[in-house]
Amino acid sequence: MKTVSGLFDTYEQASEAVRALKAAGIPDDDVSMVASNAEGRYKVSDTEGAAEGAGTGAGLGAAVGGASGLLTGLGLMAIPGVGPVVAAGWLAATAAGAAAGAVAGGAVGGIIGALTDSGVPEEDAHVYAEGVRRGGTLVTARVADSDVAEAEAILTRSNWVDVNARRSAYRAEGWSRFDENLDPYSPTQIEEQRARYANR
């Protein structure tokens, strides 16, 4: 098995990629998503443990599939330096296991560690973490070696971010690697980031 990863500037693009991966026969258990929730759009009901709408946002069920069931095992995590995220699938579970108490307190080392342990180059893992910090959504899929090209083609068609180009753009701003000691981006900063790459 190999891990194919894609960073997306919008949740909608990432959702499209997840649907396409599943349509190609990749099982739920092998697909994962980690999305910025800095704007607090998604909430979990404390009394029912189920997703419910919050203000103008959507409930977690709607966020990660609702009736169509994009992914299972959805939850909220806090990642130092990133802030709150909505996460589902094997990567979230692995990261939570790697960082004791991650569902409550989180640790980006858990996510970077989970990615690198599954074969993602560390320098790419740092770009992915920074991308989520800046409001993006990370999709990962574990696929057979023979399915890597198809999975990458699916992610590309869904408008994934070219990780090398994004690394260069970040470095042009003075960035070198993800730093969990930095403050998470504010909703305003995230909107600025999304606007910057909207026409990509």
Automatic annotation (TrEMBL):
Family matches, as InterPro entries: GSP17M-like_dom (IPR025889), Low_temp-induced_all0457 (IPR052948)
Domain General stress protein 17M-like residues, every copy: 6-71
Pfam families from the UniProt entry: YflT
Listed PANTHER family: MEMBRANE PROTEIN, MEMBRANE PROTEIN-RELATED
Protein name in the entry: General stress protein 17M-like domain-containing protein
Organism field: Ensifer canadensis
